Amino acid sequence: MTASAPVAIRVRAVLAILLPDFGYRLMALLHIAAAVAAFGPLFLYPSLRRNGETQTMAAMHMRLSFPALVVLWVLGMGLAGMSDQVYKMSQLWLALSLVNWVVLIAVSWFLIRPAVSDASDAASVRLSYGVAVTHLGLIVGLVLMIWKPGF
Fold it and tell me: What is the average pLDDT across 75-84?
């Protein structure tokens, strides 16, 4: 969005979650809940690993975290689509968010998923890297969602 865009559109875009449109607000709430479900369990993985709970980690990752990461994308795209053309994929923050999501999906599938049920030292290292990259991706996603660079 350019600097010459009407102020009302900019305000609406920033405060869209506060609008009285129930469907949009519900979608935004579910999007945030999906983010909590996708990223929250990863904070438990190190302590679960230390306690030998690899099967619990594997089940949590494949039944909660990974599906929630997919739902996060679906709801995010739904929010962009419901925004009355306020948000467009050509905007930098939304395009970077999609790239960030693809990286997170790849890390989750190729690093974390195989490492959560393996008790070896090599798997522990892969899990550590995967969780660290995921935490970084969470920070990047939050920055993009809050500041919306290029909007």
Answer: 89
The span from the CA of 71 to the CA of 137, in Å, is 16
CA 12 to chain centre: 23
Alpha carbon distance 24, 63 (integer Å): 26
pTM of the model: 0.86
Instruction: Please list, in sequence order, all residues whose beta carbon lies within 8 angstroms of the beta carbon of residue 97, skipping any fewer than 6 positions away.
Output: 76, 141, 144, 145
Residue 90 C-beta-side C-alpha neighbours within 13 Å: 4
> What number of CA atoms fall less than 13 Å from residue 31's CA on the CB side?
18
Convert 79-109 to b/e letters by CB count within 10 Å (16 or more is b). bbeebeebbeeebebbebbeebbeebbebbe
Q: Quote the Cα angle for 19-20-26, to 5°.
A: 85
Q: pLDDT for 105-129, tens place per residue?
A: 999 999 999 999 888 999 999 999 9
